[in-house]
Give the backbone structure.
Amino acid sequence: MSAPLALPETSPETPFLFRLEPAAQYSIEQLTAAYNQTRVDYLVPMPMNAARLAEYVHHYDVDLAHSFVAEADGQMLGLGMLGVRPRATWVTRLGVLPVERRNGVGRAILQSLLDASEQLGRPQTILEVIQNNTPAHQLFLANGFKEARELVVLRRPPGPPPFPPPGEARWLERAEALALLAQRLQPESWITDTPSLVHVDNLMGFVLTLPAVGRGWLIFEHQRHGKFIVVLARLALRTEAGDPVQVGQALLAHLYRRFPDLDTHTENIDATNPHLPALHALGYVESFRRIEMCRARGAGGPAA
């Protein structure tokens, strides 16, 4: 992929030249700097440092050899990463410097990622686009992606919960928590799927039995930043018996009774998840939504 690409900037007489290189040729610090520069005006910037990007690469099985950087005259113009798992690939962190947009850079990076996915033989490619990011959404539609569902990103500030109903909470060992996650029947997003959570060190959870109400479990990532800031991320709830809203509220109330200081950020809750009303009832506020899109292997579009 090191051959130069010539794509039109404003007319065929004024070609815009750049090269696509595998992201593995760059240090994590270089990739971090390029990523942050592409997101300075983004709808949801989500800046990163090198340690967080390295963690991201690890957690989400990003293959830097099949990810790409666009470069011209020694400057990184944009990048895109590809997560690779047996059943699918995942396009992520696709971005272009604001001053270099509309020059075909993003389109070329996406095409290289899709070509890599085709070569790897995975049956489908998945990505997420923030709702109302119209240019990216149109680019993905033009390249054979179809909308699959909406995913909700939520936040909850620290604070004690309502008094939880009586129930017996049994805290789980890591192996049991992962086994429960693997039993989920609904398809999960790349971020919340079990292969991602396998990479999480601080995975916690409990099973809650509520007399005459029901039974369910809650599993989450427990992070600590600095001395005092404690964060709960990537929340998974399941109701095994009873009403999901009632059981979900009880699960969350028991969680925050034990951890009242948790600042919670949870990603990619399916908009049709029956526990969503319980999350809202416990003080969760919607930050934004993503649209999950899928493209079958060999689908039509410029990148096919």
Notes: The mean pLDDT is 88.
